[in-house]
Amino acid sequence: MSDIRHDWQRDEILALFQLPFNDLLFQAHSVHREHFDPNQVQVSTLLSIKTGACPEDCKYCPQSGHYNTELEKEKLLEVEKVLEEARKAKNSGASRFCMGAAWRHPSEKDMPYVLEMIRGVKALGLESCMTLGMLTAEQTAALAEAGLDYYNHNLDTSPEFYNDIITTRTYADRLETLALVRDAGMKVCSGGIVGMGEAQSDRAGLLQALANLPVHPDSVPINNLVRVEGTPLENEEPLDPFEFIRTIAVARILMPASVVRLSAGREEMNEQMQALAYFAGANSIFYGDKLLTTPNPAASRDMQLFARLGINGKASCSAADVAAGGIAAVDAASAGATGDSKQKLYYNAAAS
Ligand code: SAM
Ligand code: DTB
Ligand code: SF4
Question: In Å, how far from its chain's centre is CA 262?
Fold first, then answer.
């Protein structure tokens, strides 16, 4: 079994990045098989509960109020509207519902609605996940108390490159929010973005910062920059696809038991690239034709790809869930779900 380490050095990580591609993928895939079923990919649904006009200046983000991206802004959605979307997600087989808000942090007036959303989502029998920006200790406690399962808060990039991308909040602020979430007993979802013009050493630095947290995040989203017109990164040179796959592979090796999510950017990836990402250790995706504001592949396309690869789509994202084996999976009716009531929740690639 590969060790769970928290003392990764930058040069060791860079040495992994610089391995011959086949050696790196072999190592990552071997680690992956020690901890996970390699033919299982977990899926979650995502909803933007408050869109645009964010006071932060993240250079990649279409929702920042600092840039003109012609995005239609929306106030916090009504609780009932959110629950309606959650019901739809549940009916299509999802077991986790992720809600994202374009906030620096939640305001006190918004908190009661957010808590009601968590309670409502839980009452539907779904797991809940939120990403609302920075939190205070009181807000963290309230989210945990309402039953929030996961909190997503990304480190985004290396500590050195961070100030080139965001000036309105610090790396230390992010680490503090992660510590609050961890200490409150919620599961941590934390990763970052690549393809922002960072150096390989920055990609290594992001993974180093994540892997050397006191506890590895349960879930590690790796986003490939979606270049949105109007943002400062709109003309950024796309990252070499093989370098993206290397990033997934190194994340898998550094955090062997964490679920690695092939997150934003899939719309621009071909099927071969996604298949390589699954081989390299990615075992989670967002499912549905929209991320927060940008397009994502249609669910039916994902199901078709899963069918061709013999992958089972499963609606969750923690190693504990995988071990417990108790999570409902996507409704794969369009691509060959099996018949009996328990199995119906799982797409059975072998049946197609
Ligand atoms: N406002 C909250 C925050 O930043 O903590 C939560 C929502 S924010 C949109 C969540 C994450 O989405 C960011 O940390 C970033 O990693 C990712 N993201 C945002 N815009 C992106 C883009 N254009 N391409 C890829 N990932 C993006
Ligand atoms: C994460 O790391 N990626 C997701 C989720 N956490 C909330 C969001 C991706 C957003 C991509 C740009 C957009 O759709 O606005
Ligand atoms: Fe706001 Fe989050 Fe976008 Fe940054 S990433 S501008 S904090 S919504």
Answer: 7
Tokens linked to 244: 């993206």
**Which residues surround ligand 2 with Cβ inside 6 Å?**
46, 62-63, 100, 131, 152, 154, 191, 221, 223, 226, 263-264, 291-294
Cβ-based burial of 70 (10 A; exposed 0-12, middle 13-18, buried ≥19): exposed
pTM above 0.85, yes or no: yes
Sequence-distant (≥ 6) Cβ neighbours of residue 35 within 8 angstroms:
2, 256, 257, 319
Give me the count of residues in the chain: 352
Low-confidence winner among 156-160, 188-192, 328-332 (lowest mean pLDDT): 328-332
With b meaning 16 or more CB within 10 Å and e meaning fewer, what string describes 181-197?
A: bbebebbbbbbbbbbbe
pLDDT tens, residue by residue, 126-166: 899 999 999 999 999 999 999 999 999 999 999 999 999 99
Q: State the closest ligand 2 atom to the C-alpha of 286, by its place in the atom list counted from 1.
A: 4
